[in-house]
Amino acid sequence: MKNIYSNIFSFNKKVIKKTIFSLKQSKIVGLPTETVYGLAGNAYSRRAVQKIFSLKKRSKKNPLIIHYDYLKNAEKDVIFNERFFKLYKKFCPGPLTFVLKKKKNSKITSLATANLNTVAIRFPRHKIIKDILKNINFPLAMPSANLSSKLSPINAFDVFQEFKKKLQIIINGGDSKIGIESTVIDLTNKPRILRPGIIEADEIKKFLKCNLSKKKSQIRSPGMFKKHYYPGIPVILNKKPKNKNHAYIIFGKGYKNNENYFNLSKKADLKEAATNLYKIMKKIRKKGYKKIFVSKIPKKGPGIAINDRLSRAAD
Ligand code: TXA
Ligand code: MG
Question: Is residue 223 within 6 Å of ligand 1 at its C-beta?
Fold first, then answer.
């Protein structure tokens, strides 16, 4: 039988070598991270970044996150500040993205940063991406590996679903452990959360011992566009489904064991629920349900990120 997934590879030395070779030629590859899978390309290459935008059908007004292994490499492109160092020490490598001022002599292509004078940087924790970053002398521009406005992929097969054979290499690094995108924090002024994630605003606030800005972002980032995180069928919040053709996303105890009920976390653990969110939405889609109804999810801790993604999916 023909292997339809012939562009999905397991992690080994040969595959890493091939991936690095591709990246050096400004090609785009699908890579695992601990948050979600990404579409990676050389951030210093306009040609590579151009390909990312066209593959994703993404608006050029939406800047990409630039991924690094070491501080000293990121320092070539952005201006650090005290709050950045503090957060970096505590949370990196990990699911936190920092918006900082771009250096004038940075080699990041202006296409990747949508001509802004800021850059979003992240230090991912997943072993595979770290291994790759260690062996190249440029950072990786890497948005989530989905078509613009769709759900982010959490395994190699999700990436395949989106791009089929348009990618020569998708590395299979298992399910993404966190399952939703990184928290994005703007540190160019008073700290401000641009996208909630598993690292919570409250934790950051306590840790930095300062209030976070509540001002709405000026930047039109994809997370701020309407109809983002769309699973392909209508999503209706805070309502029960009326029939069995409609799926019901629930959270916690006290629900019946109906076939069309999908529990984000039976033990009412919001972190587990965040990890399961995209997985469950994709499962519902595959099973052929026509609509998704969602019960109330507490708006605290990781529940803030869950509600953020759900309300955009429902928009
Ligand atoms: O977990 C993640 O962050 C994943 C993995 C692959 O690293 N990446 C990801 O990238 O979610 P993407 O492109 O799907 O989302 C990037 C977010 C967008 O909301 C974008 O607007 C914001 O980061 N962003 C990027 N550069 C920015 C900048 N200079 N200022 C403000 N927001 C920025
Ligand atoms: Mg995305």
Answer: yes
Q: 64, 162, 198: which to mutate for ligand 1, most atoms within 8 A of CB?
A: 64
Query: What six digits make up the tokens of 301?
Result: 């801790």
Closest residue by Cα to residue 39 from 157, 224, 163, 220: 163
Q: Where do you find CATH 3.90.870.10 in the chain? A: 8-208
Per residue in 58-96, pLDDT tens?
999 999 999 999 999 999 999 999 999 999 999 999 999
- Does ligand 1 lie within 6 Å of residue 147's CB atom? no
Instruction: From the options 3.30.450.90, 3.90.870.10, 2.60.40.10, 3.30.70.1230, give the CATH code of 8-208.
Output: 3.90.870.10
Question: Does residue 92's CB lie within 6 angstroms of at least one atom of ligand 1?
Answer: no
Q: Could you write out the DSSP letters of every residue in 47-85?
A: HHHHHHHHHHT--TTSPPEEE-S-HHHHTTTEE--HHHH
Q: Tens digits of per-residue pLDDT, 172-229?
A: 999 999 999 999 999 999 999 999 999 999 999 999 999 999 887 655 555 555 568 8
CA distances, 201 to each of 50, 115, 225 (Å): 33, 28, 21
97 CB under 6 A from ligand 1?
yes
Calculate how far, in angstroms, residue 2's C-alpha sits from the geometric centre of ligand 2. Answer: 32
Whether ligand 1 lies within 6 angstroms of the CB of 35 is answered as yes
- Looking at the CA of residue 182, tell me the nearest atom of ligand 1: 1
